[in-house]
Amino acid sequence: MDVFPLATTIVSAFVVTFVTVVVPSPTTVTASRYAVRRGIRTAAVFLAAVLCLDTAVFLVLIYGIHPFLRYLGAVEYLVPLAGAGLMIVGLVMIVTARREGLWLLSISQRPEAENGGTARGPVLAGLLVPAANPGFWIWWTTVGTSFIHAARPWGPLGLGLLLIAFLGGAATWYVVLLWALSHGRQVFSERIQNHVLVVLGLVMIGFGTVVFFRGLASF
After folding, report:
1. What is the pTM of this model?
2. DSSP string, 77-102
3. How far is it, in rounded angstroms, from Cα 128 to Cα 109?
4. Alpha-carbon dihedral sign for residues 162, 163, 169, 170
5. How far apart are CA 135 and CA 138, in angstroms?
6. pLDDT by 10s per residue, the chain, length 219
7. Could you write out the DSSP letters of every residue in 93-160?
């Protein structure tokens, strides 16, 4: 079996995961609040719990939902749907880049009372905050499931490498985020944030377009 399609799938999964977690979300907002109010270690525990939730969802998909969708013959439809989703994410990133308060937010300068995720323990918040975000489930049931469909022909090896790619992409951004938070808001200027989001948004749109039309071509 040719290893290059598997390698392409794994690298693509890493890149797509990294880019999508860069988009400002309740998870990054909560991590920022934890870092500012309780320290970097607490934020790291929170993000580790987020990765544990990702792992649990991945296992549910490969052992439950994906086999069921494959039985119904609906898995193939997820590929163009995933491509469309990636294009939408790219557009959201470009639009978001025009707004202020992106990654490191101004909450570090606002001593507001704790609420939301920061009012809970970091582990519990790491499970509840992503779970309460509809985008989390939309991503996993479309983009995540389409990658699982692509990696499944390689069996446990392909699925294991895919999980590593998913977690590695997210963890890479989380490390950068924690490093930036530990050095203060000035590490990333608003101008740099805007430019990075626009570039990554364009990359995501391009990648989503390829996935979308390849998915349509397979019918």
Report:
1. 0.78
2. GHHHHHHHHHHHHHHHHHHHTTSS--
3. 25
4. positive
5. 5
6. 444 588 888 998 998 899 888 877 889 888 888 888 888 999 999 999 999 999 999 998 888 765 655 555 555 666 677 777 778 877 877 777 665 444 444 334 443 434 444 446 899 999 999 999 888 888 888 788 888 888 888 989 999 999 999 999 999 999 988 888 887 655 556 677 777 778 878 888 887 787 777 766 665
7. HHHHTTSS--SS-GGGG--PPP-GGGGS-HHHHHHHHHHT-HHHHHHIIIIIHHHHHHHGGGHHHHHH
